[in-house]
Amino acid sequence: MPQTLTEIKEELAARGIRPKHTLGQNFLHDHNQLRKLVAAAALPAGALVLEVGPGTGTLTETLLDAGCEVIACELDRDMASIVRTRNAHRMGPGVGCLTLVEADCLDGKHAISALILQALAGRPFTLVANLPYQAATPLIATLLERHPECRGQFVTIQREVGDRLMAKAGSDAYGPISVMMELLADVEQIAVLSPGCFWPAPKVTSAMLAIRPRTGERPCNPWDPFTAFVQRVFGKRRKQLGAILNRESVAAAGFDPMRRPETLTPAEWLALFAAHQ
């Protein structure tokens, strides 16, 4: 049974601590939403799961009870202590057991923590997490772009971030991350969560997403120069392509030099990049 809101509050009160706003600690306590997230992941018995930001361990314990092997990464020592104490009887590697990594989930902007990678040991895994808002975009992008062993990401994030991940060309939310997501994954919105699903209630609405990587060859190889190109051009999104790049080269590639970056579909980005190599 997932922790109730009363239990979460009691765990913190017993230690004289409060949720830390600086770490984005808003604990998901709505059991229906927790069940939706786990159900969407469709985890087989014994599945290896990475969880980032477990907090008091509500989702962690739900995953363990489902027979998963969980690697949970928690930056806050106070929260890590709660998770360890509550699950002392099932710490360690193996099915239905928990490995707790006390660290930032990222080593820089584009690298997963070495401690997490050590615990994963190159095995296929699934990310299932109520992600700290600050870490959401870089973590999701890094796993998708650099870790094919990640079979899928099932996450709760700020709705505004979710909108950017799913945005289409021509919309205000459309940007480099939107291009990458459409080229590399199928993204589905599972649910929209009101602030009341969390404690403390955040000031924003959240979204629950399923991100399923596409199989097969990437549409562009090598990948990093393409992403750098898209980010560079999008950095001047209000300017016309002809002003950002070169009017003649843009026209030679078959594009109107007066178009702006946010109007290009992912397929057009690939074509524009190829023409400028």
CATH names the topology of the largest domain as: Rossmann fold
Assess the beta-strand content as a share of residues.
15-25%
**What's the shape?**
elongated
Given helix and strand content, the structural type is alpha/beta
Distance between the termini: 56 Å
User: Gyration radius, to the nearest Å?
Assistant: 20 Å
**Poorly predicted segments:** none
- CATH superfamily assignment of the largest domain? Vaccinia Virus protein VP39
Helix content: 25-40%
- Tell me the major beta sheet: 7 strands, mixed
How would you describe this structure to a colleague?
Helix content is 38%, strand content 18%. The chain is α/β, with parallel strands linked by helices and 277 residues long. It folds into 2 domains: 5-213, Rossmann fold (3-Layer(aba) Sandwich); 224-275, Helicase, Ruva Protein, domain 3 (Orthogonal Bundle). The protein has a 7-stranded mixed β-sheet with strand order 4-3-2-5-6-9-7, sandwiched between helices. The protein has a two-stranded antiparallel sheet with strand order 1-8. Helix 6 packs parallel to helix 8 (176-184). It is elongated and about 65 Å long. The termini are far apart. The mean pLDDT is 96.
Q: Layout of helices and strands, plus pairs?
A:
Blueprint: H1 5-15, E1 27-28, H2 31-41, E2 48-52, H3 58-65, E3 69-73, H4 77-86, E4 98-101, H5 114-120, E5 125-130, H6 136-146, E6 150-158, H7 159-166, H8 176-184, E7 185-193, E8 198-199, E9 206-213, H9 224-234, H10 241-244, H11 247-252, H12 266-275
Parallel strand pairs: 2-3, 2-5, 3-4, 5-6
Antiparallel strand pairs: 1-8, 6-9, 7-9
Helix pairs in contact: 6-8
